[in-house]
């Protein structure tokens, strides 16, 4: 059980959530999207939201700005969250546009608002759960896709709600977060996606 709970923090790492949401969009969109275009955009998302943050983490660790990938100290979160917000902004400007790809475009806008909110809370010395924020945001986006495309995705919804519980249990088990930090993370990830439904649903 200990291994299973710890595994949740890695399998459902917040760095992977933008990619998961993008994959869900390309899998279920009824619109015709050329395979090459879908691959190029997925590759861009992987590079910008996964590879660059990982490389940046090692650089920050060598500069003694962070001590571990878990960012346990609230002060260590400032620089990574600032950089992540800039990278998400890059995706919004360069990868997706609101005319041809409204769904993933506003998905990343929601991620940007969540990231900026988490950054603001860092300055208030509050360590929101980024894991919970990430999985909650993707869950809300999945619900939006189901409604928007009129597709029965109930099974996926159940999987993602279970994943929310897995993440929360994992973070509590490792004493990484408190209940208020997890609850805040859930709503900070969930609410921006919900509010942005007005622009693409």
From TrEMBL:
List the transmembrane segments. Answer: 7-28, 40-60, 81-99, 105-124, 136-162, 182-200
Q: Which UniProt keywords apply?
A: Membrane, Transmembrane, Transmembrane helix
**Can you say what this protein is called?**
Uncharacterized protein
Give the source species. Answer: Rasiella rasia
